[in-house]
Amino acid sequence: MHRIAVGVISVTLLFCLGVTGGQAEKDCKDLSNPAFEVLNGSRANPNITLGELLDSYEKAVGGKEAVEKIRTVVAHEERRGGTNPGDWRVGSAVEYFKFPNKAKSVLTIPGGSKDVTAYDGKTAWYDSPSDGIQQMSPEVSALTAEELNLLKLLHLRDAFPQMTLTGSSKVAGRDVYVVNASLKRLGLSRSLFFDAETRLLIGSIVTQPLADQTQIIEQIYSDFRVVHGVKFPFAVRATQYNTQSPLEIKRTRIECNVPLRDDFFSVNSTTGEKSNT
Fold it and tell me: What is the rounded CA–CA span in Å between residue 149 and residue 189?
C-alpha cells in the first residue's frame, strides 16, 4: 500500500491507481477468492424490492429530510495500513466532502509530513513532499468521480442510478441484501451489502481488471453513530486481496455543514489543513 492512503478519499481508490480502463465488458470476478464467499452464497429473489430496500436504507440513516440538510462533511481519522504481514504504518487524516462531488484528504504521517489528495469535481490531483503537485490521469479522475465516499453513502440513488437487487447472503454472520452497483464503462464491478435487520450499508466488494491482474477490494463498515441527525460509519476495514494489504480507519470526529469554498478543492489551493472560510 502506497503512503497508507493514495488516491482520493474512498478506500477503494487507495488500491486502484493503476487503473487503465477499456475492459468494461470483462467479467473480472474470481468467485474462488475468499472475498467472494458472500457472493457465492447469494440467493436470488429476496422478499423485498430495490425501491423498498433503498427507502428503508434512507430511513435507517436518518431520513431524507435530515440527509438533504447535509451539504458538507469533515471526518477526522486515525489510519493503520499494512504493507507486509506484521508491518503496519500509522497516520492521521482529515477528509473533506462537499455536495455533490468534491472531496479532499489531508494525511499526516509520523514526523509531520503531509500528503494531500483531492477531487475538484472534474480532476483528481495529489500533493506530496516527494512528488510535489501532480494531476492524476483522466482514467483515475473518472473513477474518482464515481467512487463511494462518506457523502455518497447518503445519496446512493443519485450516485449509482443503475443499481439492481441481485439476492441475499451473509456478511460477518449478518443476513444481508446484495445490490449490484457496477460501472461497466469504467470496468468496475461493485456489490453493496445492506444489513437485512438494520438496513444500513455494512460492506462492499469492488473488482477492477488491470493489465496483469484483477484488483479485489473488500470493505466493511461498522460503529455507526448519529451526527447531525444522520448515521455515519466511524470504522472502516478494507482488504486488498491481491497483496493482502489491510487498511483500518477509525473516525474520531465527524462534522457536518462546515463552510468549505469550492476553491479549497482546487489544485491551486494551499495544502494542509488550513481554514478556508
Answer: 16
Of 126 and 275, which is predicted with more confidence? 126
- Provide the domain limits for residue 178: 12-265
Q: Which residues pair with 235 in a beta bridge?
A: 222, 250
Using CA of residue 62, residue 7, residue 11, residue 57, what is the dihedral sign? positive
**75-to-93, 112, 155, 251 alpha-carbon distances in Å:** 8, 19, 17, 7
- 146 within 8 A of 35, measured Cβ to Cβ: no
Global pTM reads 0.81
**What radius of gyration, in Å, describes the C-alpha atoms of the chain?**
18
Q: How many domains does the chain have?
A: 1
- 27 pLDDT above the threshold of 80: no
Residue 94, CA distances (Å) to 113, 185, 275 in order: 14, 31, 13
Note whether residue 233 is domain-resident.
yes
